[in-house]
């Protein structure tokens, strides 16, 4: 639960579903598997779905690389009253970013690349990928400001943008780290692909007063293997802060 001090009066709490690092590719994440996952996720009945990038994988170990249409088609079946918002990841930029964005928008999914959108009481800023050098946090915050009052959220692929967000928002949602993807007992993960090491490794955390959610992701990168880092999706409730008499 994320308690928001200035939650709009009369607005019921909202359930936000965070997905990240889907990495559609053979053998471990073919579109057919993603279809089944989407069916399960829809049963959670989220009000809004946030996808923190890396829809695709072009890893050398892949047994099959799918087209942009094949990657996106299952995501078009996600159901949420406030819709689905996507911030691209580094693999999306290395693949076919224009094709992916076109397929997403054709199916009604919103793509935010240093842009913002107001959905219900929420103002969502989508920061483009930091790892591949496409991020612009100041432009994203300015776009949010132009939308007027609302509950501010940031969606980004890499959590490395968090120190650059110079003001607090209700929550920041990210992915990219895979929680290390392969972790060894007593040793831990070899890398979180972050210049901050394990500072934003994964999970629900508070960093310098900022509430942050970093998903472990659904798929894999480099190798079609996870060890001690199960895939996940986060269902986060936003609502009013309780007033203590």
Automatic annotation (TrEMBL):
PANTHER family hit by this protein: PHOSPHODIESTERASE YAEI, TRANSMEMBRANE PROTEIN WITH METALLOPHOSPHOESTERASE DOMAIN-RELATED
Domain of life: Bacteria
Name of the molecule in the record: Phosphohydrolase
Keywords assigned: Hydrolase, Metal-binding
A Pfam entry, by short name: Metallophos
Transmembrane parts of this sequence: none
InterPro entries: Calcineurin-like_PHP, Metallo-depent_PP-like, Metallophosphoesterase_sf
Organism of origin: Sphingopyxis bauzanensis
GO cellular component: membrane
GO biological process: lipid A biosynthetic process
GO function terms (MF aspect): metal ion binding; UDP-2,3-diacylglucosamine hydrolase activity
Calcineurin-like phosphoesterase domain sequence ranges: 15-179
